[in-house]
Every structure is written in C-alpha cells, then in structure tokens.
Amino acid sequence: MTTTTARTTTIFRRPRSETGFWSWITTVDHKKIGIMYGYTAFIFFVIGGVEALLLRIHLASAESTFLTAADYNGLFTTHAVTMIFLVVMPMSAAFMNYLLPLMIGARDVAFPRLNALSYWVFLFGGIFLYSGLIFSSVVPPLGVTPGVTGNLDPSDARSFFGLPDGGWFMYQPNAGPAFSPGRALDFAVLGLQILGIASLLSSVNFIVTFFNLRAKGMRLLRVPVFIWMTLVVAFLLLFSLPIIAIALFMVIFDRQFGTLFFDATAGGDPILWQHLFWLFGHPEVYILILPAMGIVSEIIPVFSRKPLFGYAAVVFAGAGIAFLGFGVWAHHMFASGISTVAQVGFGLTTVAIAIPTGVKIFNWMATLWLGRIRLATPMLFALGFLTMFTIGGLSGVTHAVVPSDWQQHDTYYIVAHFHYVLFGGSILGIFGGLYYWFPKFSGRMLDERLGKIHFWLWMLGFNMTFAPMHWLGLQGMIRRTWRYDPSLEFWNRIVSVGAFIIALGLLVFMWNFYRSKRRGPLAGMDPWDARTLEWSIPNPTPVFNFAEVPVVHGLDEFWHQKYGEDKDGRPVRKDDADSTLTRLQEIGTNPPNPVHLPSPSYFPILMAAGLPLIAYGIIFHLSLFGKALIVVGALLSLAALIGWGSEPLEEAHMEPAHA
Questions:
Q1: Radius of gyration for the chain, computed over Cα atoms and rounded to the nearest angstrom
Q2: Rounded to 10 degrees, what is the CA torsion of 645, 646, 652, 657?
Q3: How many whole angstroms separate alpha carbon 582 and alpha carbon 205?
Q4: Distance between CA atoms of 162 and 74, rounded to whole angstroms?
Q5: 507, 578, 590: which is closest to 544 by C-alpha?
Q6: ω before 101 within 30° of 0 (cis)?
Q7: pTM of the model
Q8: Is 83 helix (H, G, I), strand (E, B) or coil?
Q9: CA distance 483 to 63
C-alpha cells in the first residue's frame, strides 16, 4: 500500500501474511480476531435458529410426531447450549475484541497472541461440541462394549442425531451415567470446558488492556460505558468460570472414571451440582446482558444528541449488578427443598438486584427525554432493547416471591422470561451495535430501509413468539415437554408462526449485510456524528488503529473536538469541526511515522488444536487410540507453547521505506 503527499512519502510494504487466507490463520490483530469471532458466532446463531424452528414445527401440534421424544429433548438441549455459549457470549466478545483498543485510544490489546489463542480455542471448542452429533453415535454407550447389550434396554430412546439430552443446565443425576448413558453429554461437557478456557484467556487480556493501555488523560470516569461493561464482564468470567469448571470436572469424572460425586446412593449429593452450576449460571446471565447494556449506552446518546444522563451512576450500576449477581443463585432452587431462611434471603437479593438495573433503565430514559431523537436503525434496536428487556426484568422480579416461583418453576413462563432478557435484551442490543459499528468494520453503511424492515419483523415475531409463553406457563404448560394438553394448541401455533417471522427478519438482515458489504454507500468519516474515540479514525479502521495516539481531555473526547457550547449551555458545532475531521482523515490514512505492531504467528492455532485432541482422548480413553490422542494433543500444545515462547515479542508489522 502506497500513500503519497506533498511532503516526504511514507511507503508501507505489507508482508505476505497481511493478506489472503493465511493472514487470518496467523493474525494477532484484534480487529481481525473480532471479525472472526463475529462470523463464527453468527454461523452458530443460524444453526441454533434452525434447531429452534424444528422445535416449533413439532410444537405447532399437540399430538405431533415430527420429532421423537429423544430428538426433541436433544434439540432443546443443543439449542440452549448453542445460543448461550456459542452465540451471545462470542458475539459480545466480537465487539469487545474489535472496539476495546479503539475506544480507549490504544493500538492493540495487551496480549495479542493470547487474544488469537482465545479465538482458536473457542472455534475448536464449538466444533468439538458439535462433533458429538457424529461421533457419539459410533462410540458405545457408557458401560457397554460393542456387541454386548449389558444392562441397557435395546429400545433405549436416545437421540438419533447424537444430541446431548440433559438440558443446558445438565442437572444431576439426569445427566449422569445412569440416566444419560450415551456419549453425547461427554462431548457437551468437554466442549464447555474448552469454551471456558477461551473465555478465561479473553478476560485476562481485557482486564490488563483496560488498566494498562488507556490513552493519556483517559481517567477511569472518562472511559466509555461499553468498555466499563467489558471490564465488569471480564471480572465476572474470571470469578465464575472456575466454579463451573470444577463442577464439569466432577461430571466427566462420574461419567468416564466411575467417581460418585453426584450419586446419592453412594453418599454423593445431586443438589451440589445445582449449587455449583447456578453459582456460575446466574452471573452468566449478566455476562450475557451487560455487553448489550454497554452497547445501548453508546447508541442512545448519539441518536438523542445528548450526553448520557448520569454516566457515573450507569457505570456503578453495572458493577453493582455484577456484585449482586453472585448472591442470587439459589432463586433457581426454590423448588429444590432448600431451607426457608435461604429462600427468604435469596428472595430479598433477587429484589435488590432490580435496583441497579432500574438505575440504568431510568438513566437511558432520562437521556431520551427532550433529546433530538433520530430514529435510525441502531436507535430502533436500542429502543427495542429498552422496552423488551424491561418486560423481561419485571417478569424476573416475580421470581423473588417464593410461592409464585414454585408455580412458575419449570413452566413456559420461565422460557418467556429469559427470552425477553436474552433475545429481547442481548440479541437486540448486539444487532443494534452491529448496525451502529458496521461502518467501522467495513467502511460502508447498511441499508436503512432493510434495517428497519428487519427491526419491525423481529419486534412482531419476537412478541408473537414469547409473549404467549407467559400465559401458557401460567396455564400449566411445562417446558421441555414433547406433548402438551390440546387446549393449549392455539397459542402454541401462534408461537410457532412468530418463530418463523423472526427467521424471516434474519434473512432480511443477511441480505442487507451481504449487499451492503459489497456495494453499500461509503461511510466516510464519522457517519453518525458520534462521541467516542473510535470514530476519530478513518473507516474501515487502519491496521495500526491510531496514527497518533490520542490525548483525552474529558468524557466523550471526540464530541468535544467538534462541539462547543453557547451561552445557554447548548451544544454548538465549532467552525473548524469539518477541518478537524479532514485533518484526522489525512493523518489516519498517512501516519507521519512508521508504526510497529506484533507480527503474525501460527503458534496460537497449533496450541489450541491440541485441546480437542485431548478431549477426544478422554472420551476414547479405554482404548489405545484414545490414550494416543491424549499424548498427541498434549505434545502438540506443549510444542506450540515452546515455539510461542521462542518468538520475539514484537516486530515491525509493516516495513517502512521512504521515497
């Protein structure tokens, strides 16, 4: 790439690894890693959506035979695991990876190769988890040798597709060897362990980046809200993932090596699993929703043309939600026979966590109040998030009332509640962010007309799908049910129609994305008249991010470079605002000095590739082949680690020359 000006010309010659297929395999660029996270998560989103449609086709009729009971149970489990661990979490990670350095004025994350490793571990973990669809049907069930039935009923109705059947929560002993003898759950458990490693790596990286690489002058209360939520989520993962890792180790040891952690007949405790799981599982809810809250906190001020009302309160409310999130886990267990004192305590904390959540909601509403609102597509998705998440939050507060929770537990009321939070909240917020930052990723604009069609199709389909589930649950329809009372058939058909409307909206988005990425209008500089630093550099983002590392003088630094105030305190665009943007465009396209960045590396992908081999070896551990897989996987990861350690820490990312 050659750039020419009237002054001395700086020429950057890209190494071969900067372009083509291998540039993606060996990249340590946080932007490319964020894009790969996004594309991978979207593919899993489509897969999870197809699974949901299959479930809704079956449930459109009370006496349907479209799926067997085992396949229905397996699809239900796989859909939930996919959407939580392979869609919402990595979609949020895509934004975090791409935007964290840009929004704090840094050229990269603290540990670029560790960042690459986290993506490849995530990818291999997802592939390993889904490989159970193939391999779990060819590996004999637990305790059964080939050609020998043993104690297993030959008519055992395991899933034809090799799907795990224990629910995403994998309650014991249902997900133990006695009641789930197939291998599918082993793939799910070990797959989740691998995915957890990816999240831990990202968390450490994001925390160090936040505290060490902020631009000069960016004090803690000048950091954008989305970056604050990234930090909060990183700490949540850091403290909650070891808990579920321990629990999953117990499960795999029970299933593979004959231990008895959850076998009540041998002195184990199945309720122990519930405590360990929900100690992770409820912070996980906030791991899923806080990034969307951060995204919405960036979108609403831009399209209201006002600063975020109560910025500090929004930041501290996010931290408060995370802290209280560790104290509400047992409200998932009110029907498990825990003591009355525990029920009262966890009921109170469930009410308390609504307070910081309410602070955020009212601050967003106050930002909208008297603002000059522009209903562009990102703003529509932000407003959709605000309304749908509020409904989900209100239905969640009802779970604090123990007798009410007893009635709602394991019914479609719960399904409605968490979809209003996770789809109406997380997914709408994430797609709002995608419409908002698409120019930053691609340099082009998504089509506004198609974007609004997408939004309204989703709002219609979403509410048709999940609103009726509230009263289906209150009428007694249990979740994870293959058959149901025919009197509930009408509303189930409405729900199924709504699911297909959601699918139609997704198809509209996919066409919009494909067309706009190829032929969409060029975004130019600062297409939204935004407030934060990532918009002060050209679109799409240069490989080096900032030609000159910025100096920050206040919150919403980029906004104040463009706007001053009149005597009444109202924002007034500066006379030199356009020349400021032109100067930033020129500097961002043609940096005055050579920029050094970490060199590409293939060691992260090699190190990550060893983990699924070890996991396959654990499942096949009774055979010589399985033992060999463990050794090969361990040696591959160790060799990659040694090679990684021998690489130089930093090289010239581009070779400068002068013409």
A1: 26
A2: -170
A3: 34
A4: 8
A5: 590
A6: no
A7: 0.92
A8: helix
A9: 6
